[in-house]
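Annotators were shown the component list below and the corresponding predicted structure, then asked to write short factual statements about the assembly.
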Amino acid sequence: MDLINANGIGKIGAKVLDGERISPEEAYDLYSLPLAELGMLADARRRWKKKDAYGGAGERIVTYIVDRNINYTNVCNVGCKFCAFYRRKRDADHYVLSPETISGKVAELEAIGGTQILLQGGHHPDLGIDYYLELLSYLKEKHPGINIHGFSPPEFIHFSRTFEMPLEEVLRRFRDAGLGSVPGGGAEILVDEVRKRIAALKCSADQWLEVMRTAHRLGLRSSATMMFGHVESLADRIEHLRRLRNLQDETRGFTAFICWTFQPENTALGGRKLGPSEYLRMQALSRVFLDNVDNIQASWVTQGPEIGQVALRFGANDFGSVMMEENVVSAAGTTFRMTAKEIETFIGEAGFEPRRRNNWYELLS
Ligand code: SF4
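Structure shown to annotators:
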């Protein structure tokens, strides 16, 4: 890699600039570099990774998608300590949305040119497979141009248990009914000791990875995520990245990675909110470490649009989504929202060319 002169940046920096794979041990050295230096290395990796994309324009293009988060139910029996969204069935404000109501929301999305819904919900104890299959078929029939980016690995483990059906069969039936891709939600940190402390009833790290392995085998691509800044250590975060990278070596099914910081407001876990420098440091490390993942999304929803702009120089090449509706992160106190026009302005002001994309990172305009 000849994008930056490697003189004076040390052995680990030279290795990054040479495009070599970083070991988990070396990830510690990278993480402890001065912030600007780490950002420069991640930026070099982004440019190297994207230089052949989009007909050779990948270095200067930053993508985004117009979508809508739809949470079909807020009923959940898992009780994650970091979650401010879920309700019990006894709570007056619990709900389950009908296919017609969800279709109405999708129609509103289509009216503003959106192309995808992120469809997720709590682990409802009573909804049977018919609710989900009918919902997917109904939406696909009414809105054939909309990609259903739906559910998450913990939801699929819950479905497999509740429906008493093998995981692969559940995924196959969902895919055949209209599911287009699987979001990487519920990963938090893929280390069981951490998961037990923040979400004792959620699926294990191995189960999360097994859902993604199975989905990829069935042709369903997915994103990968990390929520950090709660009870985990740096070693846990690096282990999380190591496990994702290993699975990506095996399947090549992850389209993108996004990390965000834990939002403590209104949650049982509480605690301190990490600041921008730790977010940028972690995102930069992820860009370098995940050398087999093409796209890194900036998390401006939790950090704000200005830090989102800086994140584009710390390894990110995508500005995420317009998110016409968002209920989960905002329940924990975060309220950053933007229109497509505002997103394009922020990307342009950061020195990049904004382009709209679909779920598979193909340009739409
Ligand atoms: S994060 Fe998801 S699984 Fe956990 S309590 Fe909230 S809705 Fe339920």
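Statements collected:
1. The two ends are 31 Å apart (CA to CA).
2. The first strand starts at residue 61 and ends at 65.
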